[in-house]
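One such given next:
>
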Amino acid sequence: MALEVAAKAAAGAPELLGDCPFTQRVLLTLEEKKVPYKLHLINLADKPKWFTEVNPEGKVPVVKFDDKWVSDSDVLVGILEEKYPEPCLQTPPEFASVYGIKDFWVICDIPQDPSDGSEQALLNELKALDDHLKAHGPYIAGEKVTAADLSLAPKLYHLKVALGHFKKWTVPKALTHYLKYTEVCCSNE
């Protein structure tokens, strides 16, 4: 039986998946584990009544487990790992803290003034991730995808899109391992 998943619909295009990295993390986990699911796209500006009845907080993503809707991507990924242990996506403890980007949401608000230090802070974080991937890659924990990758990849995608669009900023080409990682993560089927 397929799980039911409620996810953010794209603004202005309610038939398309929206831009929520937390939803993407849960969907990537379901895909990696090959768990069948039925996707309900939710227009967050006009939430359907059934959705607000089962999820009064109105947050996405939510997944229905045993007649109960559960929210929070951390909780959802934990439940999925417990209920569907194969393939195991747990990140080995020695790599569990390697999520690459600290203060992800703050980084997306880099001011136009490169002298304030925020751009350099971002570059330092990306360089640290690049160095880690050079030593341990192609994924965070080596040769196989783990929960850390499924959490980080959507955020890095959003970072690239947001900074490119709003700040006209791109990741330096010298960060080859980082760029390869994002390419591999975004191309996985």
The helical segments are 21-33, 49-54, 73-83, 104-107, 118-136, 147-167, 176-187.
